[in-house]
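Journal club side-thread
Mid-discussion, someone asked how the predicted structure for our own chain would compare to the paper's figures. Pasting it here so we can look after the session.
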Amino acid sequence: MKSIDWKDWEIFCRVVEGGGFTQGAELAEVPKSSASAAVARLEGQLGVRLFERTTRRVRVTQRGQQLYDRVSPLFGALREISAEAASVSDEVSGTIRIATPYEVGSQHLSPTLNRLLKQHPSLRVQLDVSWDQPDLIRHGYDLAFVMTDTGLHDSSFASKRVVLIERAFYAAPSLIRERGLPRSPQDLVGWPTVGNLDDTHWEFLRDHVETFSMDVQPRICTHNAEVRLKAAVDGLGITRLSPRFVHEQLVQGQLVRVLPGYSSSPLKVYVLMPARKLMPASVRAFLNALEETLGVPETRRPAPRATPLPEAAQASIVEQPAGDDGTPTVLSLE
């Protein structure tokens, strides 16, 4: 009996998951030509067409989908067995694959990763930027960080909340000179806004109690906080961001915190992981380092010394209280 090349089956699954040969080859970590050849071999062996191919798109056939639904969970189980077997060793080595939103990676994970890599020379980290909640098993991630202002989607993965990020409202001095200094949330109605893709309204909280909600139709909608920040600095609209993320712009006088007595609903950051009985040593070491880095006893860190705004900004923005401490509330792993 001819032996079965299971690698071709795995590549077939990756092509289905990637929605085409280009993305599927990336997921399988093989050249696109190798992915095409693997699927062609599999179709020849089975005597069925697995994909409908046109010049514009690739679509899995009904029979191909049926085979994928049966085979894909088996590869997931094999990856789980492999990870559990590797966890028997206490050596922190190999590669940790992590998915994270940009802001979480740049603002919160970098210190942990740098510290861990210095301690363990045999360890490697692959960090992918993703704003969606990924399927860890399907995409081969060891951990995924998800940022949300509500809660997690239904998930079979284990999860822990690691960070609670405060948000406040910021605008460029030029926009405030043009519109006038707002003294209540209601004064912002009609202002241009720069927001997230999911923003339909902004909540205004005073002492952690919501006092006003404003409908928004942002001129720029994007998950990319860097784009929102730059748009706000250019005076295109008021934006809602983490105080830590805008600290440098506040110090330089490029942005001003609007209505400093108010905040908005915080963002919750969760870390997702496969519900394994045995966790790989590398993942366990990363989570321990993350808790040591973020899990401080205080809910706030000391505020940096306030830096005066440029004279041009001071001349037009009066009665503006001192800037925010620039640090989000940090919670230890639950």
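Post-session note: The chain is about 35% helix and 20% strand.
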